[in-house]
Amino acid sequence: MSEALEAQLDILQNENAFLKKYFALRQKCEQIQQANEKVVNRIQHVKKMIKRYKRERRYLANRLDDYGDNYRDVQVPVMWEEDKLLGATEPCSSFEDVEKEISSPMSSTDRTAKKSKADTNAPKKPANAFLLFCTQQRSSVQEEYYKDKHEEISNHEMTKRLAQKWNGLTPEQKKVYYDMYEHEKERYDKEVKEYHERNSKSQGNVTQEVQSMMGKEAQSAVDALMMDT
Question: pTM value?
Answer without folding.
Answer: 0.39
